[in-house]
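This part of the workshop introduces the protein records we will be handling. Getting from the letters to the tokens is the skill we practise here. The record below serves as our worked example for the rest of this section.

…
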Amino acid sequence: MSRILLVAPYPPRACGIGRYAAAQAQRLRREGHDVAVLSPPDGDGDMRVEFLGGGAFRTAARARGFDRVVVHFQPALYFRPRAPLSKVAAAAALWWLCRRRPEAEILVHEADPPVRWRPDYLLLRAAFRAAPALLFHTDRERRQLERAYRIRARARLVSHTDGVQVRAAVPRREARKRLGIPEDETLFVAAGFLHPDKGFDRAIESFRAVGRGRLAILGSVRERSPRNQAHAARLRELAASTRGVDLVERYLTDEEFDAWIAAADAVVLPYRRSWSSGVLARAQALGTPAVVTDVGGLPEQASGRDVVVRDDDELAAAMARLAAGRDARVRP
């Protein structure tokens, strides 16, 4: 079996990618691999280093004795906001890792559109070109990155469910009892960090058109920027003024999160911008259908049980159909 180094955020950090990496590490260990985790200082990794500014990439490049080095890539993990020299250093370190370690793999959870004249993006493009392997969850994401960065990637696809671990699936009836949700009530769940790109305000507006049932929004602000804080305040106002909407504003444990997903008639992902979705993968693992917007790789990630919508009208119509179907099933 292989010795594998995972470079990723890790619990107890409140982070979806950290959850993904923890589930991946456990799966690989069950398969017999020797796995070490390099995490930021707030994670319980086997090794810990500051990620911002490229420290994680430099440490991984110097690590010895590993057959694979898997980097979980999302820009905010490594690039310090409003710090040009730090961004250049981080991008250069990733390029160096890719050139130095032929066993390196970059799992691209998300990548920003490049500003092609900036040195950090030029170096990031060079790193993507040099990467021995770029991993994506959907082919649409691969094409999007190749087009934006003008490269031809050495790429392969991995299932998003590889990063999902359900410890103990809860039957819907038991989950509803635990949460205090009536058996005959339609329940929609929207979950994730509170950010304008998540579009949870769209879910509330569409739910208003449905006019019955309950919508639970589960999430908290991760990056406390003025934009995110203003969006969270807007969600609080909408939730307070809309009957049937509950805003659960905190980071839930896996067990709590899974109970809400299992209890739901549908998970609603009204994203304005996305690559792929860990929430969608978790809903699929738990057997709960989802309504997702046609952005990023979501249509490709969606299963036959999920509904893909193009705009707010289709979102409201899909939620109304699900509510009507629930009414028909529980009507005497």
About this structure: The chain has a mean pLDDT of 94. The radius of gyration is 21 Å. The chain has 13 helices and 13 strands. The longest strand covers residues 34-39.
